[in-house]
Amino acid sequence: MKNNNFKGQVIPINRDNVDTDLIIPKQYLKSIKKSGFGPFLFDSLRYTSTATLDSTKIREEDKSFILNRNPFRNGNILVSKSNFGCGSSREHAVWAIQNFGINTVIAESFADIFSRNSYTNGLLLICLSNENISTIINNALSSDSYKIEIKLESNSIILPNGDDIIFDIDESYKDRILNSLDDIELTLRYKNEINSYENKMKSMKPWLFGNE
Amino acid sequence: MKNTLYDKIWEDHCIRKNDDNSSLIYIDRHLIHEVTSPQAFDGLDIKKRKIWNKNSILATTDHNVPTINRDKGITDPVSKVQIETLRDNCNKHSIELYDLGNIKQGIVHVIGPELGLTQPGMTLVCGDSHTSTHGALASLAFGIGTSDVEHVLATQCLNLTKEKNFNIIVKNKLKPFITSKDLILYIIGKIGTSGGTGFTIEYTGDGISCLSIESRMTICNMTIEAGAKSGLMSFDEKTHNYLKDREFLPNVKYYDQALKYWETLVSDKDAIFDRTEIFNAEDIEPQVSWGTSPEMVTSVDGAIPSSDKVSNKEEYENTLQYMGLQSGTDIKSISLDKIFIGSCTNSRIEDLREAAEVVKGEKVANNIKQAIVVPGSGLVKAQAESEGLDKIFTKAGFEWRDPGCSMCLGMNDDFLQPYERCASTSNRNFQGRQGDKGRTHLVSPSMAALAGIKGHFYNVREFMNEK
Fold first, then answer.
1. Which residue, among B52, B11, B12, B61, has the nearest Cα to B30 in the 3D structure?
2. Distance CA B125, CA B57 (A)
3. How many domains does chain B have?
4. Terminal Cα-to-Cα distance of chain B (whole angstroms)
5. Is residue B281 in some structural domain?
6. Does this model's pTM top 0.90?
């Protein structure tokens, strides 16, 4: 499933160091699936009580949290500050964001493992300056609707007032966002090279291969 | 030669350079556990792919297992499915699994080194961010997501972009009763939780070489809290002594050859680092985190910093509100509800010895609702029991548990109730980490033990000098 429509309502999460425990708390990591995490995104901020994967009770939403308010509830572009996605390597954080319907996260900076997991899942991450982030967050918080458009072909973001912001993005990353790729298949094209490396190592470092 | 240790291990594992900036890197060792592997095996099954080298993999159950009443089995049905899924997957693909009931079961980052599965010069991955721990044995180790777990299962490789080199030099020795946990918390307090983002950090200097391997592991473990995926330390005589006689070490036939290679695993004298920071170990007092990010840390003799010292006032206010603390409060006046000694950061035998030294002959304070000690593995547990440490803990009022991740992340039944305050030897004080609305203070094992005895924080140096 690919969504290349990078246009939509901004969801401002106005804080630094949004960690992956906050994005998806531990009790939901007991799932053995990649789907179904959307209802638990930012769970501790979103609801007044906790839940478990198998609980069916309807929970009360915390109306002060941004995801429970219009128009943010239906947003698809999350905007936050520095070091987004720090902490645990749980890929469930990326799945939860995508399951909710968000296809882009814009922040001042991202943690390394979160960036990697976003890359493998085709979640678009864009880094902007502190100044640009503050503009988007403040405008989104004070407007009834704040929709922006990301144009990957020109590396630009078009704001509602027509202004544009240019961003840097790795070309191979862009390529993978636009074209669904099977990483494993791509790597297995080099099967012979992996085999010959392994054979070389079996003579150079024989102890690594099970003391055979 | 101007290569860092990281440069050397990277080059040794580089199969090819790709057209983009990445390289195809061979992975020697893959550790897996129940939480981040099921979707990876599922992915293999869907595409009918085979495992490249099952002998490179070891599985254990740790994140989601009970640490008490194991004979009753796993009562939570959701947890049970996850653990049984790992059993099924290991069974189906003939992967070695150290499961509940096996003395070798334990926290993945404790059992890797203790069994000799982690070896110098290896590339080692696991679907867990604290994989950085294994860098203390001069192994390039880092946490990966589930898609990459699947990728390594199927190809024994990852396409990676090389990080930059960061040298953290620690000069001089830590003062008595100050531990490597205090050192790494102090460093994170200085460079921040994104200070290491985009880097591999190598720790060097006499302040590191004088430390035991287990102490070094605590530092590499929390390197991820400084933003870097991998922490590294060079191979030396201590590494060699630590490794001797571990179960999975190279057999006699290859041992000398392996040792010769291991001895090359140091950064060249004139190696070039992209960034260098120097710290003086003598400056460091026992550390206590006061906020909801590991960089929010101060000395036990200090106080909650005032708002004029922070850049983001709103976040600072939110943090203090969450933690139930006020600006200017003395750290030593903070009283605790629970004590947790354990986790991949601090559950090894030396950690338990340090804590037991404080606890010996004392009693847990009345205001402490629960104090638990969770050894990192079955082997650590057995060793501790053979030294009588379990008796020291239980006599004082601590609970002595079975190995697992436990209250570090509270996936099992060990977690904080809302607003409970915990002195914890774990690695993350994030909101809700140890339980919804729970309040975490990160400390060393001896500081956690002492907080249990006093009921509030206290300087372990003063206490031990008085004792």
1. B52
2. 10
3. 2
4. 52
5. no
6. yes
